[in-house]
């Protein structure tokens, strides 16, 4: 399935051929301000991987989350460093020596198929999901 979406503030349209990943234009994202923090999903495998507890945050990629359709029992790797060109997911850029990056991506899964808001500011306390922290950064 070919999906076109706008990536971040750069107004760049990307075309990807990935089954089961649906992205929407960032201008269409409705933010989670009305949601309670208890409504924010949890990374069901965070306790398994030490990378989940890295204390540092990455650089700010964007000041709004990215909505993606995610599927259960599938591994995703959320970009923490903020350098990936495939935001909000990791593309391995953190390994390039010129970035001198020590941050690792956050491996995560979800419990049910749904649209999820993934953090793009990289400052969320509930990695990889947006917790509204981006609104305090502007
Ligand atoms: S984009 Fe909302 S907390 Fe990072």
UniProtKB/TrEMBL annotation:
SMART domains: ZnF_CDGSH. This is CDGSH iron-sulfur domain-containing protein 3, mitochondrial. It comes from Thrips palmi (Melon thrips). Residues 65-100, 105-138 form the Iron-binding zinc finger CDGSH type domain. The gene is LOC117640950. InterPro entries: CISD, FeS-contain_CDGSH-typ, MitoNEET_CISD. Gene3D superfamilies: CDGSH iron-sulfur domain, mitoNEET-type (3.40.5.90). Keywords: 2Fe-2S, Iron, Iron-sulfur, Metal-binding. GO terms for cellular component: mitochondrion. GO terms for molecular function: 2 iron, 2 sulfur cluster binding; metal ion binding. The keyword Iron-sulfur applies. Its cofactor is [2Fe-2S] cluster.
């Amino acid at each position: 399935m070919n999906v076109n979406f706008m990536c971040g503030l750069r107004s760049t349209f990307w075309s990807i051929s990935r089954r089961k990943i649906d992205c929407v234009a960032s201008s269409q994202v409705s933010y989670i301000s009305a949601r309670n923090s208890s409504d924010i999903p949890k990374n069901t495998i965070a306790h398994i991987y030490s990378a989940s507890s890295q204390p540092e945050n990455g650089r700010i990629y964007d000041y709004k989350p990215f909505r993606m359709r995610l599927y259960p029992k599938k591994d995703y790797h959320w970009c923490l460093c903020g350098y990936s060109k495939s935001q909000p997911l990791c593309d391995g850029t953190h390994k390039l020596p010129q970035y001198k990056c020590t941050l690792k991506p956050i491996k995560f899964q979800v419990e049910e198929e749904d649209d999820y808001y993934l953090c793009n500011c990289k400052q969320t306390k509930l990695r990889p999901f947006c917790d509204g922290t981006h609104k305090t950064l502007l």
